[in-house]
């Protein structure tokens, strides 16, 4: 909804600048807007979402949607031919890289929080929105690890809740990092991850953008290009590391909570492209 509102506002502003009507908009107007955004260097997915947002605004206003208009469809097809439709994939923070990211964190309150966040985001294959929404009570210790309850997520918009297992592990030591952070910050209830200023004062909840910045900063600290990483890198790192270790896809899916195994298989396939290459026996 936030993205749709942003796209709709951009469309209205563009129409105002061009002295054309935004609602109802003519198919030729939408087609021209697509061409304008294409010239600005927008990605294919962003352009397609913008058209969907404008179409949605028309439907909410009781107007006929233009999404099936031949003019608009031709413009979208031309955009796809120009840009292609392959998504821009960010690099996964695999287990070896994550260990370096953890080791580089300073022994400060911010460093302790970052270690806990990076470790849990990886161990639970969590989305950044899921990380910032966690309450301390959502993590319940069990023998051998802990159970983490996700109250709401992208694949659970109705809030039915999903529970996954979190291992402490001998390499990442996720639960130890969380315990250290909570004890140092004096957190006993409420949000698990919070902002910390440069004076060490604890603030309110983190934003999902803060998670992305923490990951990018950690990547840069170990000598990597931060632009290659995003808030999705921890989740992708768990899935990729699991695939590289030969873990069963269904077991990976129990943690990642993928509804479509086809999506999960794309990660597994990328991780095993060289390990299972047909040329191993003769190249």
From TrEMBL:
It comes from the Bacteria. Residues 1-62 form the Core-binding (CB) domain. Residues 85-281 form the Tyr recombinase domain. Keywords: DNA integration, DNA recombination, DNA-binding. GO terms for molecular function: DNA binding. One of its GO terms (biological process) is DNA integration. Gene3D superfamilies: 1.10.150.130, Intergrase catalytic core (1.10.443.10). PANTHER family: DNA ADENINE METHYLTRANSFERASE (PTHR34605:SF4), PHAGE_INTEGRASE DOMAIN-CONTAINING PROTEIN (PTHR34605). This is Integrase. It comes from Gluconobacter sphaericus NBRC 12467. The lineage of its organism: Bacteria, Pseudomonadati, Pseudomonadota, Alphaproteobacteria, Acetobacterales.
